[in-house]
Design a protein that fits this description.
Elements lengths: L1 H12 L13 E2 L9 H4 L6 E4 L16 H6 L5 E7 L7 H21 L3 E5 L11 H11 L6 E4 L5 H14 L5 E4 L6 H11 L5 E4 L3 H13 L4 H24 L6
Parallel strand pairs: 1-2, 2-3, 3-4, 4-5, 5-6, 6-7
Helix pairs in contact: 1-9, 5-6, 7-9, 8-9
Length: 257
């Protein structure tokens, strides 16, 4: 798994900047499977985030368990703490309270150890959602006293949903740096449409997309049908196309001021 991460990262960095006036790329790297990468990235001025949640946990739990504070003290201060919260605003009250309490504990740990916090909110797919769901979920996070430095969100359902999200963030934390758009494994054409809408939103600062870029290459690498060079080529090509799509969206007629 670590070798696959190394190949994917090499592909992601290849040719960056040739087509786009974007800031230097950032990365979200798992502390276990990306352990060989983190020392190479740290201290170079790039944006680095690391997941802290126990994968698939609902209610929210942390990989370090009760040692959360000690774990974060071992991270360099430049590493942003990324936490996925599988949260729906209509969750059962006891589940909602437990999750938000855990998130508040994480925020306190981040403040105590000097780390920025990125909260990724994904409503469970099995629960009904509408254009107001994400904004309501963010409102509940703020009501719990949690003020993330960054949000990472699935594509909101159109301009009106984006405006509602922006209103919630602006009301509670007008200095919030912004939102990163996630892809949820979507196809490139679907991502392009999400970019078209998101790029017009001043609050959206870019995308943080993984599976749409590397999943196919990783599967073929594990199956032995793609070598290391092929992985780098495929990941680089897909990442470069998404960068170009984002820049086209930023420059497009849908851009608002």
């Amino acid at each position: 798994m670590a070798d696959a991460a190394q190949r994917g990262y090499a592909g992601a960095l290849r040719d960056i900047g040739h087509a786009a006036p974007l800031p230097s790329p950032g990365v979200i790297v798992d502390g276990r499977f990306g352990a060989t990468l983190l020392p190479q990235l740290t201290g170079r001025g790039g944006w680095i985030a690391r997941p802290v949640e126990l994968p698939g946990s609902r209610p929210l739990a942390f990989e370090s368990g009760d040692a959360l504070w000690a774990e974060l003290r071992s991270w360099p201060a430049e590493h942003v703490v990324k936490c996925l919260l599988a949260h729906h605003p209509d969750d059962e009250p006891a589940l909602k309270a437990r999750q938000l309490d855990s998130l508040a504990t994480l925020m306190r740990a981040c403040h105590a150890t000097g780390h920025e916090l990125l909260v990724e909110v994904i409503p469970p797919a099995e629960m009904p959602s509408n254009p107001h769901t994400l904004a309501r979920a963010l409102e509940q996070v703020y009501a719990a006293g949690v003020y993330p430095d960054w949000w990472k969100l699935p594509p909101p359902d159109g301009d009106a949903a984006w405006r509602e999200i922006a209103a919630v963030i602006g009301r509670h934390d007008p200095l919030c740096p912004g939102v990163l758009l996630l892809g949820l494994g979507a196809a490139e054409a679907e991502l392009a449409e999400s970019f078209r809408i998101a790029a017009a939103q001043p609050l959206c600062k870019g995308f943080a997309i993984g599976r749409s870029i590397f999943a196919d290459a990783a599967a073929r690498w594990f199956a032995g049908s793609l070598d290391d060079t092929g992985v780098v080529e495929q990941v680089a090509s897909r990442y470069q196309r998404l960068i170009e799509r984002w820049c086209e969206a930023r420059a497009g007629p849908s851009r608002t001021t």
